């Protein structure tokens, strides 16, 4: 199905004609045109190998696209990214508290100059994500699900304007998953823009505003309600 791109009046990021092939000639993405709006909750869907992680890495600047351009209409430092795997952070010789605060490293200020407000917000995040009891533990000694919650707190402590998450609920139990979605919805209500790679169809139905479905190229890009109708049609 060919979709017209939704208009971009309040775009914070705009992708134009993005294509990417890796050194082994695998074509991961072809001619992607996409925009992310201020206040959006955009879910990026696609099957394994469809190019989701490649696209996210291009958006956050970790991967240079073979073709096309990305335009940023917000400060790049206002973008926070929670990747699928963060081995280096999850194995750091540091406490949970230190790892969370390191998400707010002001590049111009020494480590000890954290403002009181940042520490207060870090404490709130510890509570919201139910990891307050872990604050003094070494992150390397936590379970996979606990580490993910710590890394989410780390990616939020700088109060980003855009949060990009790649499969954020991997390894979380039912309660932790529900808590995480509730927190994201709350932050989105307060103005945080969200781009989330997800396989969780229920979460997409419940929380997303817009949906982009890719399989190297864009298969669908539009409102969640329209996507839902298309899904229903397909299943009839
Ligand atoms: N570093 C790499 N070098 C070569 N090919 C790669 C590399 N990373 C990804 N690919 C290939 O690019 C294509 C897109 O991969 P990508 O990881 O972006 O997909 P994905 O949609 O995120 O998949 P998944 O849902 O399984 O995480 C796949 O065919 C993959 O094998």
Fold blueprint:
Blueprint: E1 11-21, E2 27-37, E3 41-45, H1 52-60, E4 67-72, E5 79-82, H2 87-90, H3 96-102, H4 116-128, H5 144-156, E6 162-166, H6 174-189, E7 193-197, H7 201-207, E8 210-215, E9 217-223, H8 224-235
Parallel strand pairs: 3-7, 3-8, 5-6, 6-7
Antiparallel strand pairs: 1-2, 1-4, 8-9
Adenosine-5'-triphosphate (ATP) binds at residues 22, 24, 26, 28, 46, 48-54.
Mean pLDDT: 88
Strand content: 25-35%
- Radius of gyration from the alpha-carbon trace, in angstroms: 18 Å
Q: Could you tell me how far the N terminus lies from the C terminus, measured between alpha carbons in angstroms? A: 17 Å
The small-molecule ligands in this entry are:
adenosine-5'-triphosphate
CATH class of the largest domain: Alpha Beta
- Spatial order of the strands in the main sheet? 5-6-7-3-8-9
Summarize the structure.
With 236 residues, the protein is of the alpha/beta class.
Plain-language structure description:
The chain has 236 residues and is an alpha/beta fold. The protein folds into two domains: 1-74 and 161-181 and 192-236, P-loop containing nucleotide triphosphate hydrolases (Rossmann fold, 3-Layer(aba) Sandwich); 91-159, no CATH class. Helices cover 34% and strands 25% of the residues. It contains eight helices and nine strands. It has helices spanning 52-60, 87-90, 96-102, 116-128, 144-156, 174-189, 201-207, 224-235, and strands at 11-21, 27-37, 41-45, 67-72, 79-82, 162-166, 193-197, 210-215, 217-223. Strands 5-6-7-3-8-9 form a six-stranded mixed sheet, with helices on both faces. α3 packs parallel to α5 (144-156). The protein is globular and about 45 Å long. The protein starts with 10 loop residues before the first strand and ends with a helix. The model has no long low-confidence stretch (mean pLDDT 88). Bound molecules: adenosine-5'-triphosphate (ATP). Adenosine-5'-triphosphate binds at residues 22, 24, 26, 28, 46, 48-54.
């Amino acid at each position: 199905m060919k979709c017209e791109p939704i208009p971009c009046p309040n775009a914070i990021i705009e992708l134009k004609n993005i294509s990417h092939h890796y050194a082994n000639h695998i074509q991961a993405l072809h001619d992607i045109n996409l925009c992310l709006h201020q206040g959006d909750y955009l879910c990026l869907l696609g099957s394994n190998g469809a190019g989701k992680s490649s696209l996210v890495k291009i958006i956050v600047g970790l991967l240079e696209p073979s073709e096309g351009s990305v335009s940023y209409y917000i400060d790049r430092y206002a973008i926070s990214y929670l990747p699928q795997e963060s081995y280096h952070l999850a194995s750091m010789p540091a406490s949970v508290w230190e790892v969370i605060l390191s998400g707010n490293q002001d590049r111009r200020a020494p480590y000890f100059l954290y403002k009181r407000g940042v520490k207060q917000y870090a404490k709130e995040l510890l509570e919201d994500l139910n990891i307050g009891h872990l604050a003094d533990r070494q992150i390397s000694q936590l379970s996979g699900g606990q580490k993910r919650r710590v890394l989410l707190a780390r990616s939020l402590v700088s109060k980003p304007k855009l949060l990009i998450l790649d499969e954020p609920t991997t390894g979380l139990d039912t309660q932790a998953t529900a808590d995480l979605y509730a927190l994201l919805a709350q932050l989105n209500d307060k103005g945080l823009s969200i781009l989330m790679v997800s396989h969780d169809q229920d979460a997409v139905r419940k929380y997303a505003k817009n949906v982009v479905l890719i399989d190297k190229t864009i298969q669908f890009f539009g409102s969640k309600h329209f996507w839902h109708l298309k899904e229903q049609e397909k299943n009839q």
